[in-house]
Automatic annotation (TrEMBL):
UniProt keyword list: Signal
PROSITE patterns: PROKAR_LIPOPROTEIN (PS51257)
Protein name in UniProt: DUF4232 domain-containing protein
Source species, domain of life: Bacteria
Record domain DUF4232: where: 72-205
Amino acid sequence: MTTFKQQKWRLLKLSGLMLAAVGLSGCGLVRAASAPSVKPTPVPSVSAREVGSVAALSPNPVVNNPSELPSCSVGQLTVSYVDGVNGAGHDRLQVYALTSQSPSPCTLYGHPAVALLAATGQPIQTADIPVTAPDTIVTLAKGDPAWFVIEYQDAPSYRGESCPASTAFAITPPGSSSAVIVHGPGGHIHAYGSNECGEIQVQPVAPKGVPLQP
């Protein structure tokens, strides 16, 4: 059970991470700049809240976007891993960017859906847990990123269970039905959980550099 003190610590740590990434961005030193963005891969969406097999895959639940501008489609976005930090205990926080390639403004609203993938490309057990936090309409011009954060435990709990690590990470943008696959450091995730393997808490998208609630 997360205590208020731990929540406050995580918020301060996350705020520092986001602000540090913004500062590095101004100097052209954000790690994501050296990591290639990836384009959408035509695979079934991996947004099922409990993913254990291909048959369990389902589209990201449609969330009504209140913006008058159109939603950014998966084909208009690239995704990159921004940075990560270890939190209290065995918590791990990682920041990802969804960057618009659309020539016209578009918006993102709500939670991305995520799933862990094995080296074969098949999903491994993922418990995708949307974090309760205010959704924000993020309007993107071409080249603008929206950020979101995931949080997971990267070491066994008191039960000492053994959980598999992913080779890649599938992200389905809010309102989309196709996933974007992240490889490299942002795709290698060893997620444990308080109840089962693969528990990942997912924040809603937010403007670049805005600290998100834990």
